């Protein structure tokens, strides 16, 4: 790594006494961090805030010289590696040395912005105060859109910051390393220069478990490079309400498919996190029911019958637990009338007793206080803390900015209202969590990881993930691929933007501020326009047409004239980089202005139309789905998606992705799922599992190892796919089953039982083999029995596509 003039090499002047381990015992010693010198932020004086329009480059001028490629030691990850019941003796011994105040401090998580002045410098007064007086156990990156501007740092500077916090944590108060948590949900996208990877929707659309793993691994590595040991991901929420603002973050609507992607991404995040210091603790979220909001708005109540919760919501969390996820985050607001953060049923009976989760649990942001601030389920902060600790197994409060939680709980313990043993239950899990992450051996970051952040290797991987995630949904008359010599007119605000490809949870929770815009991605991403230019080697023919909200910004007559002259037109639709309540919508309808220009081009020209849907949500296409000759669902594909999108348009590869959720036609279908009861309407715009490639792939008849399926006697289902085309095809096969009859509880239309993906060279075939067990047909009744019913079953391969094939078997109860 090259050092610039900005680098000031100063030796560490603090006296530090971190805790480390000798022969399995935790000790306090002198293991100093390897200093990570950084270019200091421009000093404007201690109390003078940075102006609104300062350039991010001035805030952190650390030069950025990532390596091309890197290799990291591999550990054996084949066995279960995750939290256990057993707490180590040294952890128990450490717990015994702590005062009540120090224990409660360990249960407290406050935001990083409390340690950064508005001048962008580290506030050591605040560090001294919180670690000395409160022994704060954890700090979180608060992805606040304005405050984040003061801390949108390179991994190098980030590590310097987290290590500085750690110097205080390990030398003050209880001298226990703090754990640093961050919303790294698609790459370490809150750290400048880290590759912003595609969002959960895109990863699910790949139907490639190795991609889910690699996505998690890169995210973990860059998070660790910045000195954070804990990532608040992945999401195991399922996409049940299409209007909900956060569906793009999760892995779609199917419990099995979602669970597989959760499982492999957890493995990627964590690896052998008890040995491998390039990984982080994952935090699966949001437990439970968050996504099924009654009106599609964020943090609204959910009413989910328990049999439905068990059937569809629980499995993906269980897969995260099977993968050894170290922590879980509870969900905002209320499920079935109970505040989740206060629910004994959800956070003790279901989570701990039924699902046997052993790891540590954190709340969502300031959620304990929401009980009195918002939900009126508690009278004040102390009452709220009491309820949560008395009723649930919550271990850590993501407090945010206040001290009420710590002060309140200390008081509750002193008054005997909360027993010290309840506190110990949580602190034990927190200390074991820290120990498992190696924090008592080495609380400081590994400076060697910094140079891997933003490496070409990760950019290439990101582009590969994007290629496998773009869903081709329509291609009449083989309008696509485009040809190099065609005059193609591109229209849409997000054609020339990296920010709109990255979406939310990049830079901040809601993307860059309007002041920063795309400048924060300069050097760390491309655009659809630059991708097209890289590929065609000529300037793109682009007119903006409408802004990101669909409002007209260009002369529409001019667009129609340009479209008439063009060989093809590509319209790109998008959405602002928002999430949570700020991204609430009240209809899936498109802005009429945006709709109208497509209609005009369709009616007033004969130029073929392609739609690129670069969106968080399935906006209703109405007649546009017939006006368009071809449609591609792009999702939110990240900073390096421009080139892969261009490659798809120009036929450099054949698409292989499938829809991870049902794309409704109209608002009234917002709650549509493909596994609706068999007699119920299922007439969406695009089905779950829809998507095809440029090659004509045909399927053989389905064969089964036996026509009879019985408990304990799995069968094998086989089908052969043939690529009749001229290009390589990465082919996704999805196996669904349908029980033709089921008494009392109507069978679902279909359920996904497995999927796989194989590479087919032109003219070749490959056989997919899936195991199918009778046990998979067990379902939850209204009385919460988990039962199996026999009868005829249809097996369908690729139900969402024209080349679907079927067979019939008989299922027996015993
Ligand atoms: C952070 O960087 C400053 C300036 O280079 C340096 O003095 C300090 O030692 C560094 N701290 C850590 C913990 O790396
Ligand atoms: C630093 O933190 C202290 C204690 O929280 C606070 O009083 C002070 O205003 C902060 N300084 C700046 C520059 O933000
Ligand atoms: C919760 O409060 C009740 C009533 O005071 C008490 O009996 C129970 O032990 C408490 N539970 C916990 C886990 O503290
Ligand atoms: C895209 O935006 C950049 C920065 O605003 C501008 O310099 C560039 O000319 C635009 N590209 C096209 C094709 O208009
Ligand atoms: C695909 O190939 C098969 C086998 O050659 C052929 O029967 C079928 O008509 C083709 N389908 C399309 C849509 O071209
Ligand atoms: C599939 O089965 C049907 C009916 O049994 C038969 O007519 C057809 O030839 C079979 N197709 C292939 C590709 O084996
Ligand atoms: C799945 O993803 C991995 C990792 O990117 C890649 O190596 C592999 O070729 C992909 N497999 C298929 C069948 O697409």
From TrEMBL:
Q: What keywords would UniProt list here?
A: Glycosidase, Hydrolase, Signal
Q: Which residues form the signal peptide?
A: none
Membrane spanning segments where?
A: none
Tell me the superkingdom of the source. Answer: Eukaryota
InterPro entries annotated for this entry?
A: Cellulose_Degrad_GH3 (IPR051915), Fn3-like (IPR026891), GH (IPR017853), Glyco_hydro_3_C (IPR002772), Glyco_hydro_3_C_sf (IPR036881), Glyco_hydro_3_N (IPR001764), Glyco_hydro_3_N_sf (IPR036962), Ig-like_fold (IPR013783)
Q: Which family does the UniProt entry place this protein in? A: Belongs to the glycosyl hydrolase 3 family.
**Name of the protein:** beta-glucosidase
Species this chain originates from: Smittium simulii
| Lineage per the UniProt record | Eukaryota, Fungi, Fungi incertae sedis, Zoopagomycota, Kickxellomycotina
């Amino acid at each position: 790594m090259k050092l610039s003039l900005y680098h000031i090499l100063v030796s560490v002047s603090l006296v530090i006494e971190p805790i480390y381990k000798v022969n399995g015992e935790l000790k306090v010693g002198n293991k100093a961090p390897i200093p990570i010198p950084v270019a200091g932020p421009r000093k404007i004086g201690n109390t003078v805030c940075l102006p609104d329009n300062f350039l991010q480059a001035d805030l952190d001028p650390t030069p950025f010289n990532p390596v091309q490629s890197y290799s990291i030691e591999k550990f054996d990850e084949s066995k279960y590696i995750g939290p256990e019941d057993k707490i180590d003796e040294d952890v128990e011994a450490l717990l015994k040395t702590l005062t009540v105040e120090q224990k409660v401090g360990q249960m407290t998580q406050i935001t990083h912005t409390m340690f950064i002045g508005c001048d962008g410098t580290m506030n050591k007064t605040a560090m001294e105060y919180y670690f000395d007086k409160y022994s704060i156990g954890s700090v979180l990156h608060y992805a606040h859109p304005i405050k984040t501007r003061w801390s949108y740092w390179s991994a190098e500077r980030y590590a310097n910051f987290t290590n500085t916090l750690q110097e205080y944590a390990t030398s003050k108060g209880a001298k226990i390393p703090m754990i640093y948590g961050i919303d790294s949900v698609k790459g370490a996208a809150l750290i400048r220069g880290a590759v912003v990877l595609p969002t959960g929707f895109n990863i699910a659309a790949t139907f490639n478990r190795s991609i889910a793993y690699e996505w998690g691994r890169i995210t973990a590595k860059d998070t660790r490079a910045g000195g954070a040991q804990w990532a608040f991901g992945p999401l195991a929420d399922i996409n049940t309400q299409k209007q909900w603002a956060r569906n793009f973050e999760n892995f779609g609507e199917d419990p099995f498919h979602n669970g597989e992607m959760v499982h492999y991404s957890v493995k990627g995040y964590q690896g052998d996190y008890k040995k491998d210091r390039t990984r982080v603790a994952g935090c699966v979220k949001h437990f439970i029911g968050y996504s099924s909001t009654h009106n599609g708005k964020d943090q609204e109540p959910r009413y989910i019958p328990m049999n439905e919760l068990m059937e569809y919501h629980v499995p993906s969390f269980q897969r995260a637990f099977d993968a050894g996820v170290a922590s879980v985050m509870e969900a905002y607001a209320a499920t079935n009338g109970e505040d989740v953060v206060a629910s004994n049923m959800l956070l003790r009976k279901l989570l701990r007793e039924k699902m046997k989760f052993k790891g540590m649990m954190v709340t969502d942001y300031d959620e304990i206080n929401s009980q009195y601030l918002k939900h009126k389920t508690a009278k004040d902060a102390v009452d709220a803390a009491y309820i949560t600790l008395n009723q649930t197994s919550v271990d850590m409060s993501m407090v945010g900015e206040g001290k009420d939680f710590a002060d309140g709980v200390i008081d509750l313990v002193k008054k005997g209202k909360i027993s010290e043993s309840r506190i110990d239950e949580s602190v034990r899990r927190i200390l074991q969590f820290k120990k498992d992450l190696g924090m008592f051996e080495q609380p400081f970051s590994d400076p060697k990881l910094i140079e891997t952040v933003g490496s070409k290797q990760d950019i290439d991987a990101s582009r590969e993930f994007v290629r496998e995630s773009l869903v081709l949904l329509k291609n009449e008359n083989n309008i696509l691929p485009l040809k190099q010599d065609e005059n193609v007119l591109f229209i849409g605000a997000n054609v020339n933007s990296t920010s709109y490809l990255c979406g939310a949870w990049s830079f901040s929770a809601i993307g860059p501020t309007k002041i920063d815009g795309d400048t924060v991605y300069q050097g760390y991403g491309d655009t659809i326009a630059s991708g097209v230019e890289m590929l065609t080697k000529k300037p793109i023919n682009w007119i903006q047409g409408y802004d990101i909200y669909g409002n007209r910004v260009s002369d529409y007559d001019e667009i129609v004239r340009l479209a008439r002259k063009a060989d093809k037109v590509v319209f790109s639709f998008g959405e602002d980089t928002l999430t949570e309540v700020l991204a609430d919508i009240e209809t899936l309808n498109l802005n009429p202005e945006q709709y109208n220009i497509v209609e005009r081009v369709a009616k007033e020209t004969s130029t073929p139309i392609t739609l690129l849907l670069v969106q968080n949500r399935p906006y209703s296409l109405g007649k546009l789905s017939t006006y368009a000759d071809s449609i591609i669902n792009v999702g939110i594909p990240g900073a390096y998606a421009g080139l892969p999108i261009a490659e798809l348009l120009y036929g450099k590869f054949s698409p292989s992705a499938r829809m991870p959720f049902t794309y409704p036609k109209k608002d009234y279908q917002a709650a549509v799922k493909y596994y609706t009861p068999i007699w119920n309407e299922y007439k969406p715009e695009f089905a779950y599992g829809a998507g095809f490639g440029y090659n004509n792939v045909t399927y053989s008849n389905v064969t089964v190892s036996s026509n009879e399926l019985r408990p304990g006697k799995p069968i094998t289902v086989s089908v052969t796919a043939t690529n009749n085309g001229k290009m390589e095809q990465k082919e996704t096969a999805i196996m669904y089953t349908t029980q033709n009859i089921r008494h009392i509880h109507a069978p679902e239309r279909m359920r996904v039982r497995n999927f796989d993906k194989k590479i087919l060279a032109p003219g070749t075939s490959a056989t997919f083999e899936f195991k199918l067990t009778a046990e998979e047909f067990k379902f939850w009744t209204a009385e919460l029995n988990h039962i199996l019913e026999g009868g005829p079953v249809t097996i369908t391969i690729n139900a969402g596509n024209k080349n679907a094939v079927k067979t019939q078997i008989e299922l027996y109860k015993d």
